[in-house]
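tokens incoming
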């Protein structure tokens, strides 16, 4: 071990003492001392001092040493060697850039921007300080960051400034502006990362066709790129081009290099299969999604909801209900709308059944509404209206008038309102139609029923003068 240590030191000393051109000598020295600083040997301080003594006037080596210390999170020595470099050359821009990077590492955005400004002053043709200034300043003022990059455009027309601006907007979550900036750049000179951001910015802006076009361009250069295959897959799914979505999904999962998969990938795979009416495969993918790490219950609940929807579309009502109940539990605090959807599944299921099984399923739906009223008192009107409908489904011929008390209650809630919405009027028409028909059936046994029925049909005509059902019913009550 000791022999290897001294062999390494010997190689290092040889590197800094070899006669060669200055640039090559600097590179050898920088590579060697960087390795020493990163490896932290026992005699680190001695080796660093030896290099410093030989390079007190060599700002390139001094800044490189400072950077090596910064990579080791040793900001004290990083600052020290930046200052040594400035002592050797007070106008040396890389020293100011290093100080800016140190300030950025310490989350001192203002200090970092100040050092980068000085670096720009001493080296106005170098794109790096402009970009670094923009990167830290975008948190404070994205427009100011972009303005800085526009100054670079004036200094260096050859630099892809629009792509830099696109990136600044992208990491600031201003995706529309990011896409606009990337669109101005020459697509052929954008690297993989920039093309990915461009396609993602379009995707987040729901410009799926444009995002797909950029992803396809990326795939023309890098057909095994996971990011581009994923974006093509997602975009085709959202465009409902499910056949191509499944082809890109296969490319992502089976023909991409270094691809890592999340619950989101499997969820989209399920969406694509579901859209293609391949329900068993969709269910398999949703279940795989739930096997992945999901960082919060809301996201997990979202996948369970999609699984339930898939079962429902496949008319597997039992599993749809079980999954939907799991969805509500996973949400923890579901909304009234979330709970109401469970009742709708029961109603949909009941329509496929007959006799007592049908009635039992409708009663389960009604129980959901009963429970809703306990948890959401503000939903009383909606709950009462839906209970009226469910009871009308149980008693489709209105023999027992099961829905009557609920429709009457809805009328008592809505009628006193001085200003009624279109929803209010639609509900009143439904209530009046049921009650008018109920009393129409009672006319033979109840002398007062005729007048009551007539009043409800007239109320409908007051809301909807052209209502044909009401007009026809009135001809019956007047006989």
């Amino acid at each position: 071990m000791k022999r290897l240590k001294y062999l390494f030191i010997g190689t290092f000393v040889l590197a800094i003492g070899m006669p060669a051109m200055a640039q090559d000598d600097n590179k050898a020295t920088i590579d060697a001392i960087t390795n020493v600083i990163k490896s932290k040997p026992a005699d680190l301080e001695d080796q660093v001092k030896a290099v410093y003594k030989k390079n007190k006037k060599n700002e390139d080596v001094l800044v490189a040493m400072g950077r090596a210390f910064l990579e080791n999170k040793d900001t004290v020595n990083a600052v020290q060697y930046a200052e040594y470099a400035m002592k050797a050359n007070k106008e040396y821009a890389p020293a100011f850039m290093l100080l800016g990077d140190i300030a950025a590492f310490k989350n001192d955005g203002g200090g970092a921007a100040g050092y980068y400004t000085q670096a720009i002053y001493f080296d106005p043709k170098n794109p790096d300080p402009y970009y670094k200034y923009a990167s830290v300043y975008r948190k404070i003022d994205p427009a100011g960051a972009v303005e800085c990059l526009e100054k670079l455009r004036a200094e260096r027309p050859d630099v892809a400034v629009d792509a830099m601006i696109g990136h600044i907007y992208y990491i600031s979550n201003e995706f529309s502006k990011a896409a606009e900036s990337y669109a101005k750049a020459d697509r052929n000179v954008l690297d993989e990362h920039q093309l990915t951001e461009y396609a993602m910015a379009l995707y987040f802006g729901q410009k799926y066709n444009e995002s797909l076009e950029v992803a396809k361009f990326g795939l023309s250069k890098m057909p095994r790129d996971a990011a581009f295959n994923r974006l093509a897959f997602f975009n085709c799914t959202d465009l409902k081009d499910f056949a191509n979505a499944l082809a890109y999904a296969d490319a992502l999962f089976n023909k991409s290099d270094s691809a890592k998969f999340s619950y989101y990938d499997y969820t989209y795979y399920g969406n694509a299969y579901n859209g293609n009416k391949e329900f068993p495969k969709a269910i398999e993918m949703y279940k795989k999604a739930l096997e992945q790490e999901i960082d919060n219950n809301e996201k997990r609940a979202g996948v369970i909801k999609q699984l339930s929807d898939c079962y429902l579309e496949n008319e597997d009502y039992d599993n749809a209900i079980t999954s939907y109940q799991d969805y509500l539990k996973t949400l923890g605090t579901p909304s009234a709308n979330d709970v109401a959807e469970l009742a709708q599944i029961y109603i949909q299921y009941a329509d496929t059944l007959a006799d007592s099984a049908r009635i039992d399923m409708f009663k389960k739906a009604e129980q959901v509404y009963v429970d809703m009223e306990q948890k959401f008192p503000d939903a009383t009107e909606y709950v009462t209206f839906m209970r009226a409908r469910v009871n009308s489904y149980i008693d489709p011929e209105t023999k027992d008038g099961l829905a009557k008390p609920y429709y009457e209650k809805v009328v008592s809630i809505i009628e006193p309102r001085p200003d009624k919405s279109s929803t209010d009027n639609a509900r009143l028409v439904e209530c009046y139609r049921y009650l008018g028909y109920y009393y129409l059936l009672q006319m033979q046994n109840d002398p007062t029923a005729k007048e009551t029925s007539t009043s409800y049909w007239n109320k409908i005509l007051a809301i909807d003068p052209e209502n044909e059902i009401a007009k026809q019913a009135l001809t019956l009550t007047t006989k």
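note: The CA atoms of residues 374 and 380 lie 9 Å apart.
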